[in-house]
Amino acid sequence: GSATSARAQAAAFDFAPIGIATDYEIHVPAGYQWKTLVRYGDPLFAEADGAYNDEPGLSIAMSDKVFGENTDGMETFEVDGRQVIVVNSEYANPKINLPAASAGTPANADEVMMLKNIQGVTVMEVSGTQDGVSVVKDSPLNRRITHETQMTMDGPAAGSDLVKTNADATGMAPKGTMNNCGSGKTLWGTYLTCEENFNGYFGTTAEKEPNAGEKRYGIGGSSRYAYEVYDARFDISKEPNEPHRHGWVTEIDPADPTSAPVKHTALGRFKHENAEMVQAADGRIVVYMGDDERGEFIYRYVSNGTWAEGQPTDGLLSDGTLYVARFNDDQTGEWLPLTPETTGMSAAEVLVFARMAGSKVGATTMDRPEWIAANPLNAEVYCALTNNKNRGVKPNAGGDDTAVNGPNPRETNNYGQIVRWMPSGDDHGSDDFAWDLYVMAGNPTVYDNAYAGSSNVTEGNMFNSPDGMAFDSKGMLWIQTDGDDSNEGEFAGQGNNQMLVGNPETGEIARFLTAPNGAEVTGLCWSLDRKTAFVGIQHPGGSWPDGAGKPRSAIIAVWREDGATVG
Ligand code: FEO
Ligand code: CA
Ligand code: CA
Ligand code: CA
Questions:
Q1: Known InterPro entries for this protein (predicted)?
Q2: Are 502 and 508 in contact, with CB atoms under 8 Å apart?
């Protein structure tokens, strides 16, 4: 992890940093342009032309043939010479989607079906460049994957009693992927979608005291969309195991629109943010993953088998070991294996209740782990710890202490930080690492203590709540925020949510883009020629992007006027 020739070559910022914004627009540096690529409700198929209208909203019949709502993680693929983007739709905002008379709660089974359809995953071909870039309607690769799509499961928990339901006595055939947050890309060219706040989709129509597993995962509270009223699959008084079929990393093959997505239980069940795949020195597959909840953990999966280009991929995401991170205060750390031997739990329990397994081995409680990004030029890995209002105040749901610790050094933490670890021997297969803090976000115009942030935070680049992250091909770290955009009080001078670029070597951070007020910036991928960056704008406010009517989440394309690459 020390300075290398690759690092010495790390590019200086090739843009002039921009100031904050508080408006309902997108801003990018001078010499860059942007346009909307696709909005919630835009047709993926010609039959859905005109399916979305500001009033009365989206056609229910066409709701699985349009781009989903609240765009999140995304990745670019090349399939038979075509450029394909696979992208998550994390959640629905029923106050926007449903008829006004429903007041934000579905009034019938059809409205529930629409909410199921506008979430999940979209596969879409994208062609053209710069201001000509667009979605290819009716591409044979276009596909919507929803809360109803038939899937399969593999790994040690698949087929176990914990995942069997009335509809699926085999425990091998779950339906739907939910609350798809961050993403990942396998080395063999498939997409990983990460199921985050799945707990919010389950409710109960009968009195039911939550058990330990339900408590740890927040299941049994009120559901977000009243699914359980119209569909017994989501009623935990009737189907207590259905929630065990969600909270996984799910693999989708963008090259085969008829393929069943696969839920990989070997990677553990928790509120997955993203899945960053790299390779150990000996060729084993390594996946880093965060669990986005106050006081939860960071995980690593390591396959038993090895892989090289052109070899079969069978078993690489179903046969391996899940580890959880311990960060010591002396800036060392280690990966603790989660196995029947270390936890006293069965192999299936370790995975279905990974959080409880992590507590048993003494994992380090973190400030809401969001995206993890691995530097392609060096063996170092970054995780956004977005914020934590409970740090030092409340234990996590498993009762673990959340007092301040090495990488989470501040009590009430409204700004967040980015931790980075360097595996021993520059090998992602090593069980030991060293760590430091790449940045502590803060506000040096309000505070002169730890809440001012680290020395690489200035009045000119400050932000709060780092969330999305991705490295570009030049080894620069792109950072997206999902925080307080009030521009008031301890957030004064930070403006709307934003996207910044960080230099891993120098620590310098510069603001590249500002989002419309109300939005978070989440999801980043590049065109195959690297001349266009695709950026997700989730839950915008105002009337963005159209300037009139309801706001619509959208993906934008950003490019340089001189046609040079963007990352
Ligand atoms: Fe869906 Fe943790 O963000
Ligand atoms: Ca996020
Ligand atoms: Ca967030
Ligand atoms: Ca979000």
A1: PhoX, TAT_signal
A2: yes
